[in-house]
Write a structure and sequence with these properties.
The structure holds 2 protein chains of 2 kinds. Chain A is mostly helical. Chain A folds into 2 domains: 68 residues; 69 residues, no CATH class. Chain A contains 5 helices and 2 strands, in the order βααβααα. In chain A, strands 1-2 form a two-stranded antiparallel ribbon. In chain A, α1 runs antiparallel to α2, α3 runs antiparallel to α4 and α4 runs antiparallel to α5. The longest helix of chain A has 24 residues. Chain A starts with a strand and ends in a 15-residue tail after the last helix. Chain B is mainly α. Chain B has one domain. Chain B contains 22 helices and 2 strands. Chain B has a two-stranded antiparallel sheet with strand order 1-2. In chain B, a hairpin with a 6-residue loop joins β1 and β2. In chain B, 60% of the residues are buried. The chains are: A mainly alpha, B mainly alpha. At the A-B interface, β1, α1, α2, α3 and α4 of A face α9, α10, α19, α20 and α21 of B.
Chain lengths: 157, 500
Amino acid sequence: MKINDLLFGLIIAGLGLAVLIYAGTLPDVPGHYYGPGLFPTVIGAGFLVCGGVLAGSTFKSRERSTLIDCPDWRGASRGLVQVALMSVAILVFVGFGDLIGFRLFAFVTLAAMYLVAGRGLLVSLLLAVVITALLDTLFVGLLGVPLPVGELPGLSG
Amino acid sequence: MEHLIPALGLVLQPDTLIALFLAALFGFVVGVLPGLTATMAVALLVPITFMLSPLAAIASIVSASAMAMFAGDVPGALLRIPGTPASAAYVDDAYLLTRAGRAGYILGIGALCSLIGGVIGTLVLLSAAPILADFALKFSAFEFFWLAVLGLSCGVFVAGDKPLKGAIALLVGLLISVVGMDYTTGMPRFTFGNATLLEGISFIPALIGMFALPEILRALLKSDRAGARFATPVVDEWRGVFATVFRYRRVTLRSAALGTGVGVLPGASADIAAWISFALGRRLSREPQKWGTGHPEGVIAGSSANNAALGGAWVPALVFAIPGDTITAVAIGVLYLKGLNPGPAVFINNPEMIYAVFIVFLIANLLLLPFGWLAIRIAKLVLAIPQTIIMPALFILAMVGAFAIDNDVSGIIIMVCLGIVAYLMEGAEFPLAPVVLGIVLGKLVEQNLMQSLISAQGNLLVFFERPISAVLGVATVGIWLFTLLRWVQRSLRAREVRSD
């Protein structure tokens, strides 16, 4: 997905303005010009200038291309569903990760994604189990990372 | 030199050698996993070092860090996800070579250059430790500020022919680094009341988000008709690795020297070394237009530098107990625990131990070659798996990696937000490496800027007073002016051509 340089430049310049305004609200070290706002001010000014130059030079070169160029996703219906699944999975983990636990989450997500990718039911489930087990051993077993265990009765741990 | 034989005797003990080898294996596994760094590998080893003899403990730390630093190249080349931030500078070239079927080639180059860089770093450590430490101690906030700014400027050069987009990417990285509590006053910035953001944006989830997510999205959304199901082409072997490195031997040696130099500076780590070396390499290259198209020179420059920096970082650590980077910070702690108090006295009280450490360094680096071979075997395995199987697994791996840092879902949220930003940026042809550079260096730049300003009471001329500071400052400003002039020159010439 390609955002046109002109639009991007304007967005960046706008961001720069927002950063500058925010940086203005930060107090200075008393009696000096520097303070927590100095660095953000420099960054904001940089955004403003660079974004302006980008937008300006694109405008001047008179390249006329579409503002937002979406690639042809028509043939990638499976992919789009998988991306949707990923988004749902992220939301679920963020919201309910502690409740569900890592193993169940990973297994269900993987199985669903493999099914959508066109693998058969058995293969999907098998792959999901193997990969979940592998990641679990590696991170929890070997590296000691405390992934959420989950509170569902019978399925946790 | 009379200490060398007893030192060798100390090293060739079974416990030291076994610790060295097992730690290398461990470092390799940790380095290969995206999101886990060399520092983490070392930190995870500390509990184990309690049970080891002092030399075995040091051997394991040295070995794990050297291996993790090289192993970070592997996922970078195979999956375009840098395993450690130090590999991020050259990840694009490495990945393009993998897609061209040359994964074995580029991994072999990475291994060989890491070896050469590491060995050179060690040799420098061995011969020049006291002198270098002396130089490093002259660095104050002013010098660090200029060095960090120089590092940032390299981020723009890394963008090559699109300095404007590189500059914007760099600024994005800097903005991300600014989030959190201010260094001088503790004032929260850009946190918008959110308590988790007070600590700033963790850069590991940021790294995973920026490199892993867009790649996963792109792979999944490739039209089914385009045959996305099929695996990447076959991996070649080490054909041409030695020849290529020999051809670019000057680049290798220069990068190793540069890496060592940067590593010696306390606080300047392998990441910075890799980037400065990469940018410099591009500037001095005879074929700059090939960079970014799957050209090994960038990988050579970065790979040699980051492993060399590991050796250099031990100079201030051993001589003054001042960590050269985060890894040596952990190592110093271990040294104290083992009764090996680092400092000038250690050269007098325990010289065999110091030489033993140097020998351990050499061995650990030599192990890089067989492990490089191992990496290529793994590469064959990973690349034979169709993308549709890898991508979901990678997604879960990314989530775990992002979660594992703070054991908090905030890591995942950061990963997603930056992933989306990165996807849009890449679509608009913005380079991503400068963003990472901005995140990594932003705090260093600002902290030193503020420290310098406070001690100079706001007087900007003081930034050029100290001799080293003046040199670095002039060099940095000079580079900016030069780049600006070239850009103006190029646009004027373009306008002339158009008006013809």
